Amino acid sequence: MLYSSILRPLLFRMPPEAAHELALRLCETGMRPASVRRVLARRFETEAFEGLRRFGLTFKNPVGLAAGFDKNGVAAQGLSALGFGFIEAGTVTNLPQQGNARPRLFRLPLDKALINRMGFNNDGAQRVAENLRRHRPACVLGVNIGKSRAVRVEEATEDYLASFESVYEAADYVAVNVSSPNTPGLRELQGADALHALLQALQERNRELAVKRETKRPLPLLVKIAPDLSEHQLEAIVDVALRARLDGIIATNTTTSRARLKTSASAVEVCGDGGLSGAPLRSRSTEIIAGLYRLTRGRLPIIGVGGIFTAADAWEKICAGACLVQIYTGFIYEGFGVVRDINRGIRERLNSAGFKTLDEAVGSGAERSEAA
Ligand SMILES: Cc1cc2nc3c(=O)[nH]c(=O)nc-3n(C[C@H](O)[C@H](O)[C@H](O)COP(=O)(O)O)c2cc1C
Questions:
Q1: Would you call 266 a catalytic residue per the annotation?
Q2: Hey, which of 147, 328, 339, 342 would you mutate to test ligand 1's pocket, going by the most ligand atoms within 8 Å of its Cβ?
Q3: What is the pTM of this model?
Q4: pLDDT tens track for 133-146
Q5: Max Cα–Cα distance, the chain, nearest Å
Q6: pLDDT tens readout for residues 244-272
Q7: Burial, 28: exposed, middle or buried (Cβ in 10 Å; 0-12, 13-18, 19+)?
């Protein structure tokens, strides 16, 4: 209530990126004192999901913060007090970079959507890893890595490997981003051969680092894919993911499509290029999740992301095959309480469906959402 009646109207009066920076600063500095985080954690206390194990990690609940909100890992600790089960920092690149020229973030309130072409603005993998080591969140921490803009796609592997090594100690899992529409050529890495080469190299380095560090097993490695993929491309990605023994797939990133928007075409045009997120992405990303679940026969964990605002939206993705979910745009529109509300709603749905654990719900409606 406080968010929708006071905070959101104030933030939405500001330019989108300035509002984002303010909110991030609030989470970083305002929530740094442990006493503040304790108060918040009580206020936003979420349902506990006992025994929620995914790719060797224990999650306190299935709702995470998607990559892009805290690119530099400065606010992860404060954000975790809002009840997230996990936080994905980044995208980080090996080389620090400024990203695209501003303005590069736009709101489409009629559609409950955002368009962004941030272009991986971040302080570089080493610096971000230091931030995260200093301010570890009280939940599972993923780090999302991408290609530095200055590096040619053909030389991407070395660049990803350097980022991977930098964040290895800080991260509980690593997500390989090959799906942002805002770095020229990046999505080409979703092609079967390029993706296979990249993921094989990362897994090899992953095993080497695990041996070097002795106590550590290889880090869970996931790939994040776009919603704008054909059935054929999806099949190829699943094949590569299984061959590279990935730990999961994150579906999906933002879309380049502008179909079925309520916002006028001219207003959308003004925003220019970029990835669209939020409500208009919801059903497409659920279709991709259902497709992945069917193709993998549930063998590969799927993190479902795209257009989740409510527990019903999260439930739709869980039934389609997601074993964890993430939000970004929903967090901007619905505010701090959204994590607690979604978790509460998931618990209610589990109870009324007669499921004892979340695992029983995962994929329980995959056929249905595929047909929808
Ligand atoms: C402003 C903004 C920046 C983003 N930056 C990243 C990023 O750096 N890396 C990434 O993998 N995804 C990024 N995303 C995509 C989100 O993580 C998410 O996949 C997508 O927005 C769909 O979820 P949503 O509809 O809940 O926002 C970004 C999204 C937004 C809106």
A1: no
A2: 328
A3: 0.96
A4: 998 999 999 999 99
A5: 58
A6: 999 999 999 999 999 999 999 999 999 99
A7: buried
